[in-house]
Amino acid sequence: MVIGLTLVGFGTSMPELVTSVQAGLNGSPGIAYGNVVGSNIANILLIAGVSALICPIIVARSALRRDATVMLAVAAGFAVLAWTVPLGRLAGLGLVALLIGYIAFVVRQERGAADGGALHDKTQALALADPGLAPPHAPGRLALPLLIAFAGLALVVLGGSFLVSGAVALARGFDVSETVIGLTIVAVGTSMPELVTSIIAALKRQGDVAFGNVVGSNIYNLLGIGGATALIAPSRVPAEIVVFDAPLMVGVSLLLVLFAASGLRIGRREGVVLLGGYAAYLGLLWP
């Protein structure tokens, strides 16, 4: 369970982590935090919307009561933090510590439970996409898995470097801010693993897993990726994100919770609303 909630759970969030940290180190906070906030908005409006259109999402009461509430609280806390102070190393350490504490709490609560919460569903979504990525149920040789893990990490780091440099070039070429590129192209690009795993879960009629995947990813993004970025490359969140995108992230998080609470189900009608909201958001961002 610990491996599933940490290493495997972070698997689909690794592109966001590498990209945001590299963008922060390159002096591009618009891409770094645009990626974090934009990925959360895309997870809710785009990914949950597409998943609901494919197959209505059945929401587990435990995931709604605990994990979706945590997601909403974390989104609001991040927005307030970005508004009030620069995200320095102390703030980053606090965010990462909160994630560690949350995972420890989930592990204690879910040990022996029949149904897991959002972090468990995030792991299950990845396992549905590729059964070979399911957490091992018995100890085995570690050399090959470690080699594969480090090779995969090296490829993600290399890809993140290309993505950041390409995003900066796109911003200059389109004559738009790096923040807009971070919120759109970079955010959707790094959210592709979540999109694929949620679509596969929906196609396999496991809508509850699709919901948990979105909620778990959003918690990881804000606490883990946002915290690590602030810890390694401290900077102030760009004003555009603070004033508009971060409050919008809180608003769409609340919308998802309200949809989920109405009958513990997100149907195709709600999916259309979510996708329409994402199209409107992209229309507002691009000049």
Question: How would you describe this protein?
Answer:
- By secondary structure, the chain is mostly helical.
- Helix content is 80%, strand content 1%.
- The chain has helices at residues 2-11, 14-25, 29-54, 61-84, 89-110, 118-129, 143-174, 178-190, 192-203, 207-232, 239-261, 268-285; strands at 57-58, 265-266.
- It has a two-stranded antiparallel sheet with strand order 1-2.
- It is globular.
- Keywords: Membrane, Transmembrane, Transmembrane helix.
- Residues 2-106, 146-285 form the Sodium/calcium exchanger membrane region domain.
- The chain crosses the membrane at residues 36-60, 67-84, 90-107, 142-168, 180-203, 215-235, 241-264, 271-286.
Q: Any idea what the CATH architecture is?
A: Up-down Bundle
- The end-to-end distance, rounded to whole angstroms, is 46 Å
How much β-strand is present in the residues?
A: under 5%
Q: What is the domain total for the residues? A: 1
In helices, the fraction of residues equals over 70%
Class inferred from helices and paired strands? mainly alpha
Shape estimate: globular
How many strand units?
2
Main location: membrane
Subcellular location: Membrane
InterPro entries: K/Na/Ca-exchanger, NaCa_Exmemb, NCX_ion-bd_dom_sf
Membrane topology: Multi-pass membrane protein
Describe the secondary-structure layout.
Elements: H1 2-11, H2 14-25, H3 29-54, E1 57-58, H4 61-84, H5 89-110, H6 118-129, H7 143-174, H8 178-190, H9 192-203, H10 207-232, H11 239-261, E2 265-266, H12 268-285
Antiparallel strand pairs: 1-2
Helix pairs in contact: 1-6, 2-3, 2-7, 2-10, 3-8, 3-9, 3-10, 3-11, 3-12, 4-10, 4-11, 5-10, 6-9, 6-10, 7-8, 9-10
